[in-house]
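stuck on this fold:
=====
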Amino acid sequence: MAAVSRELRYERIGAAAVLTIDRPGRRNAVDGATAELFRRGLQDFESDGEARVLVLTGAGGEAFCAGADLKALDLDVDHPEGPMGPTRLTPSKPAIAAVDGWCLAGGVELALWCDLRIATPGSTFGLFERRWGVPLVDGGTQRLPRVVGMGRALELILTGRPVDAEEAHRIGLVNEVAAPGEHLGRALELAERIAAFPQETMLADRRAAIEGFGLPLADGLALEHRLGREVLEVAARGAARFAAGEGRHGEGV
C-alpha cells in the first residue's frame, strides 16, 4: 500500500507504516496541507490491522522537520487534533521517529509525539521558535518533561539552544544514534522486532505506562492491574510456550 502526495508520503514496509514529510525545499516544515495529510496518515495507520508500528521521517537528507512553515502561517492552532497534525492524539500503536539532520521547533514536538527516536550523528535538535516568540502548541511542553525530566526540559524550552545527537542521546531525548544514513533502516528493524511480540500484552503495557504517567502511584497501579487483567489469556499462552522450552537463554528476544 502506498499513497503519494506532494507534501507527505504514506507507504507500508513490512509491519511498519512509514510517513515521510516530503518538503525538502522547506526543510520539511509543515504547512496546513501537510498537517491534514499527517492526520489522514494516522487514520490509515490506525485502520490497518497489519501495520503494527508507525515510522515518521523526513525526505531530502537535510532535515527531519524544521517545524511549522512560518512562510505559510496557515496552521489551525485550534484544530482539536493539533496544529501540525494529530499532535493532541496518542496513537494506539507504537511510533518511531527516524531523524536525520535538523529537528527544530515543531519538528522536536513531532519527534516527541513518537514513542522512540532514532537519529543520525549529524542531527541537531532545538526549540528554535524561542528566538521568534512562537509558543510550543504541539505537545512539547507536556511530552519533553516526560522524556528528559523537568529540569532539562525547562532548560531546553527557556534557552532554545541547539542539542547535537550525542547530547540528545545522553539526556534521553534520543534512544539510539544510528550510523549516517541508517536511521530509517534501523527504525524499520526495530519496528519488525516490536511487531513480532504478542501485541495484546505489549499494547496494554504501553498504554499503562503512557496513561499512568503522572497519576498517583495507587491510581497508576490500579490502571496497570485493570489493563493487565484484560490480557491474562494471552499471558497464559505465552507462559505455556516458555514452560515448553521456547525462549530460553534469551532466544527470540
